[in-house]
Amino acid sequence: MIAPRTTRAAALLAALGAPAAAQGPQERPEPMRPVVVEPSAREYLNSCASCHGADGTGAGFLTRVFRGVDPGDLTQLAARNGGVFPLEHVFAVIDGREEVAAHGPRRMPVWGERYMVEELTERGPDELNSLRVRNRVYALVHYLQSIQEREDAATD
What string of H, E and C letters represents the secondary structure of the chain? Predict the structure, then answer.
């Protein structure tokens, strides 16, 4: 005997719905929202302020020790680049892959290398160490981007 149409439909729905029912109630995921990361001075103050100054203008206390070395005004990076912050260049200089010809022999520490030594010391060999180092360098770059002097501030 052939089952009535409603019984077949119920059986089909039960069969299709069984896996979902076994997983519990299905909730709609929250829509994706961009994550806004506020720049933090922590990494900068820890790694850079001794030479570049707490405000980034180049008046750190180590400039008295290293006479004749001008660490430069980091608040003017965008202004010296046509108003555009040179993100990739700044990353490469901090990371150690790029030197600044005007500096002459490199006196600035290669932070990418130093950060990797810290990660290896703290965590041992780990496939995430390179990612952690890049994140620390990007934290510095993000902070430096946030302290750029605006053109309209200079004309006030």
Answer: CCCCHHHHHHHHHHHHHHHHHHCCCCCCCCCCCCCCCCCCCHHHHHHCHHHHCCCCCCCCHHHCCCCCCCCCCHHHCCHHHCCCCCHHHHHHHHHCCCCCHHHCCCCCCCHHHHHHHHHHHHHCCCCCHHHHHHHHHHHHHHHHHHCCCCHHHHCC
